[in-house]
Amino acid sequence: MDKIKKGDLFSISGLENVRISIGGIVEEEKEWEPMGPHPMPRIATLRDWDFKLLNRYKPFYAPVCDMCCLCTYGKCDLTGNKKGACGIKMDAQQGRIVLLACLVGCSAHCGHGRHLLHDMIKKFGRDVPIDFGPEVDIEAPLTRLICGIKPRTIADFEQVFDYIEEQIVQLADALHTGQEGSYMDFESKSLHMGMLDSLNKEAADIIQIACYGMPSSLPGGGPDVPLVDVGIGTIDTDKPVIIVIGHNVPPAADIGDYLTENELEDKVELGGICCTSIDTTRVYKKAKIASALGRQLRVIRAGIADVIVIDEQCIRADVLELCQRVRSPMIATNDKAMHGLVDRTDDDPDKIVDDLVSGRVPGVIILEPDQVGEVAVRTALQMDKKRRLLKFILSDDEFKHYVNDCILCGGCTLACPNGLRIGEANQSAAAGNIKPLADLFDLCVGCGRCEQVCKKHIPIVDVMTKAAYPQLKEEKGRMRIGRGPIWDSEIREVGAPLVLGTIPGIIAPIGCGNYPNGTKDAWLIVKEFAERNYIVTLTGCMAIDCALWKDEEGKTLYEAHHGRFDAGGVLNIGSCVSNAHIHDAAIKVASIFAGRPLRGNYEEIADYILSRVGACGVAWGAMSQKAASIASGFNRLGVPAVVGPHSAKYRRAFLGRADLKEDWKLIDASDGSEVYVEPGPQHLLVACETVEEALPMIAKLCFRPSDTDRGRSGKLTHYIDLNLKYLNTYPPDWHLFVRTASDLPLATRNALLKKLEDEHGWEIDWKMKKIREGPIRGYDPSFNPTNLERLIREKK
Amino acid sequence: MGMEIPFDVANIPGPEMGEVVSPEVIGSYISNAERPLLVVGSEILRDKFFIEIAIEIGKKGIPIAATGHSIRGFVDTEYADNVMYYNLHDLTNCLRDPNWKGLDGKGNYDFVIFFGILYYYASQMLSCIKNFATDPLIRAVSIDRYYHPNARMSFSNFTPRMEEEYKAMLNRLVKSIRGRQK
């Protein structure tokens, strides 16, 4: 018999009526790299690594709720770290809730990825190759690192999702009453969940890049991807408008295809909110981004959409009610968000369109992405005519009536997540000054809680939108479309400067829009670090929000900065799932620049990144459970993150103690000697109160023990300068990061040496301009830092 | 003084919620504390009055941890006597450790006063102190214009219209604190 190949059909004589089911054929994989110690790690496999992290960056808990009400023994009062009826203490209960949040977040990405894979296999077949062009050889660093798999086609990700799903179930099991009881082990499990989530994201983005031809290093991709319009003011409401919301792009892609095939690209606007909009711009060149997540309520209520199409994640739970309010028919396209509608998949499109346009139904469910485009576009074309004369922005008289109606009871302020003083702004507007009210628009996170408690039933969101409407109409930003993977060739260029510290760091602003003080903070963070020659890599809502603001020359940051993964670059990597490529960039530095083996070798690579790659995530408006699992994934890989003040409500942080010397003991892998180092990075997960505080903190978390003196000098320059600029003072701990005089910036070296002598009692040799005594350690260019004893080359 | 609604109305932590008290009660506790610490946040920068209040308290011998970017207010006023920048997360993490040496190297604190900190961030840190700084006990109170249920003692909510009333409360507080040796 000939050799049977994967996918072949064959018959066995005499057994024609027998059906044989084969679960899968294991193909012998060509040896591309020896397998490392930890392929497909299970819950306990990387526990030692987690405990190394957790002993240095001890879990810090700030409960939102002092009780546990998960079983019928309860409610249990755990205040003061008391035990509940099951024996769980408050600290472990907090770890448990964090694990639950990470479970939800990881499941969302896993569900998304698996769903996408099903759709793509159905549409394009199993054998779509993973080929990102000549500049990307390491196509799936996380998949290689965690699973030990080098995926060749999209079908290879089936085994990746099989692994993740099995692990998710095991981790969910640990949440049950009477299982885990140690907060440290809950956190190890959260880190495991976060790692799985990073894998989810990589798989999902690779699948969609491969199938839709999204930017990679093939022609049209990379640093010079085109710019796209961002902002509600860019949506041409003279045309029929379709707004897509969510994260899972196939239905939106089908709308784009339908518009192209029917030559309607210039006649219908396709805009979006949140990550689906980012991914739509990666597949359909005429797509626009109406807003990030934070303005979802207000974009819908502005009534600009003739049809709204939702897929999954970060969609308001009351989206259908909002659509009905502005007479926008809604199409739900994903079984995870069906909103009580009737499933019309496979129905006659004529009938569906007629039902939507006539208003007989407020919305429909269509679960086949390939059926969405026709229905959405035809409905939009007809609804545009019906809705053209409708006005959803308040009239001047209505506005005046409402602001005069406010009785300054303060109920809205107590209901507002940001505690905005809405009543006082109403009062100003009633007196003729609408500016305070208009200014609240950007500070508002767009939840609508204020309206529910207003005793006078004032539609506060609409009133605020009316006040800000002149500015909103002019809100026209530009954003580079999501470029996907960082090229191997870019890593070759920047690997050495990053590890040696001469490029001061990679800053990764990612995630949601629950900002403490508006979208301008997102812009400021990106601007400050890009201008200082850090590499700034963005994804998700922060990538969108920072595009809304312009400099004095009228340029957005994407227009003012290049898109290369190099000093001073401002890169939009893509949607939430694309931020796996930021992990990938750090992993590739270890693999390509340092030649560390990748396959099944998570612990060693994470150890390398923690000690050498000056990267820092920034989730200034983190809101969702996905953000919790994303941060945990970055943290396990050795990348710290700075979060906004709302993130204190995630309950847990990972904080290092600069004052505890024993916590900062590393091993020199060259000879096994123990070395006490400066606290770099000091924290793995920390919240800042204001952006002014966050900017120096971000710079501080880029210090690494491996920095060269030249690199350290650059990092110190930025750390001190950002403190002086935003806090008006030197940081109290700058001296901890000085190992030798050459660590000090040349321009200010003498002055800083003097400060070390005067304020910290260091002994300075002024003749030689050298430090005699004072630092935690001296500078040793051959220092080879590690936390792993097994990496010691030769013991002393 | 009775019950109050948390400034963020849904922020009901559990059975133990802070008491609304007068400035004099808090002043008395501060005066009798062995090692009190004033923790200020960036909201003190909204009006010079609040920086002056913090400095007044500082001048009574109570060290100040300036969190957020509040340190700017002290630098601009050229007050540097016993004030130090600290990140609030970092500081609270230290406070829960009985062995922490404090800002002056002399040990942890027994009474912490939160002032001018973003409401929800402060609330979470107060929750940590309430739940985990229990042995030895650290009492944490708020003198902000918000009712803080996670504080052991707090003022009530003040609307912007009641700003002068709030300022008067702070003046009463300063007056009621007995000075101590620095």
Question: How does the overall form of chain B come out from the CA principal axes?
Answer: globular
What is the mean pLDDT of chain A? 95
For the secondary structure, the number of strands of chain B is: 7
Number of helices of chain B: 6
Largest sheet of chain A: 8 strands, mixed
CATH architecture classification of chain B: 3-Layer(aba) Sandwich
Low-pLDDT residue spans of chain A: none
Approximately how much beta-strand content do the residues of chain B carry?
Answer: 5-15%
Rounded to an integer in angstroms, the radius of gyration calculated over CA atoms of chain B is 15 Å
Q: For the report, how would you describe the main beta sheet of chain B?
A: 5 strands, parallel
The second-level CATH architecture of the largest domain in chain A is: 3-Layer(aba) Sandwich
- CA(first)-CA(last) distance of chain B: 33 Å
Strand order of the largest sheet of chain A: 1-17-20-16-15-12-13-14
Low-pLDDT sequence parts of chain B: none
Approximate strand percentage of chain A? 5-15%
Outline the secondary-structure elements.
The complex is a heterodimer of chains A (796) and B (182).
Chain A: H1 47-56, E1 58-61, E2 67-68, E3 76-77, H2 90-124, H3 141-147, H4 157-173, H5 183-212, E4 227-230, E5 241-245, H6 250-261, E6 269-273, H7 275-283, E7 288-291, H8 296-301, E8 307-310, H9 319-325, E9 330-332, H10 349-358, E10 363-365, H11 372-387, H12 396-405, H13 411-415, H14 422-430, H15 435-443, H16 449-453, H17 460-473, E11 477-480, H18 488-500, E12 506-509, H19 520-531, E13 535-539, H20 540-545, H21 557-560, E14 570-574, H22 580-593, H23 602-612, E15 615-619, H24 625-636, E16 641-643, E17 652-655, E18 665-668, E19 674-676, E20 683-687, H25 691-700, H26 709-726, H27 749-760, E21 763-765, E22 770-773, E23 785-786
Parallel strand pairs in A: 5-6, 5-8, 6-7, 8-9, 9-10, 12-13, 12-15, 13-14, 15-16, 16-20
Antiparallel strand pairs in A: 1-17, 2-3, 4-11, 17-20, 18-19, 18-23, 21-22
Helix pairs in contact in A: 1-5, 2-4, 2-5, 2-24, 4-5, 5-24, 6-11, 10-11, 12-14, 12-17, 14-15, 15-17, 18-22, 22-23, 25-26
Chain B: E1 19-20, H1 23-32, E2 36-40, H2 48-59, E3 64-66, H3 71-76, E4 83-85, H4 88-95, E5 111-115, H5 119-132, E6 139-142, E7 153-154, H6 163-176
Parallel strand pairs in B: 1-7, 2-3, 2-5, 3-4, 5-6
Helix pairs in contact in B: 1-6, 2-6, 4-5
